[in-house]
Amino acid sequence: MSSLPRCVCPVAEEASAPRLAGAEASAALAALHAEAFPPAERWGADALRLLLEMPGAFALLVPGEGFVLARVAADEAEILTLAVAPAARRRGVGGRLLAAALARALAGGAATMFLEVSVANEAARALYGAAGFAESGRRRRYYADGSDALVLSRRLCGS
Ligand SMILES: CC(C)(COP(=O)(O)OP(=O)(O)OC[C@H]1O[C@@H](n2cnc3c(N)ncnc32)[C@H](O)[C@@H]1OP(=O)(O)O)[C@@H](O)C(=O)NCCC(=O)NCCS
């Protein structure tokens, strides 16, 4: 698609390396999600466990700081959620989680990564823009507060 950005290789960094987390970590993931999101948008441990049990789903965790949950289906991948605790923000955790998810999705056979983000979420939009994501669609009034969702995507290296 012409709207997709050019390929930019994800770069893994050394500090606080994200590690794979399975369903046994769902309570820790829920605690981080509750710190990162307002009450109406929080995902509980049971919901996170169910998501993690979907084929192709994986979570990457920096304990006590943040996590990303994503899934790969055929040649497409999707970020389901990305959460960094307020005390850990602006120290590169979100960027490292995103880079690790991109690398794992590529290794899993994905050619393109998609995600949805509120048009009002300036922090996340800045993070995704810096990581090479570009707008490829919009869902009107998608969120409970009436804001639109932007559908962002980027190609993965090797595709
Ligand atoms: C969005 C979020 C994951 C960013 O995590 P983070 O660890 O603070 O991000 P990083 O430190 O890796 O930031 C990387 C870049 O993203 C951009 N960015 C991150 N937060 C920003 C902010 N509040 N304002 C502007 N730009 C921001 C900057 O370009 C930043 O680079 P810089 O710090 O060198 O300027 C975090 O704010 C969060 O969990 N928010 C609540 C949950 C959420 O909105 N998740 C995404 C849903 S789609």
Automatic annotation (TrEMBL):
Which sequence ranges form a coiled-coil region, renumbered to this chain?
Answer: none
InterPro entries in the record:
Acyl_CoA_acyltransferase (IPR016181), GNAT_dom (IPR000182), YpeA/RimI_acetyltransf (IPR050680)
Q: Which UniProt keywords apply?
A: Acyltransferase, Transferase
Residue limits of the N-acetyltransferase domain?
16-157
Query: One MF term from GO for this chain?
Result: acyltransferase activity, transferring groups other than amino-acyl groups
Q: What name has this protein been given in UniProt?
A: Ribosomal-protein-alanine acetyltransferase
Organism the protein comes from: Teichococcus rhizosphaerae
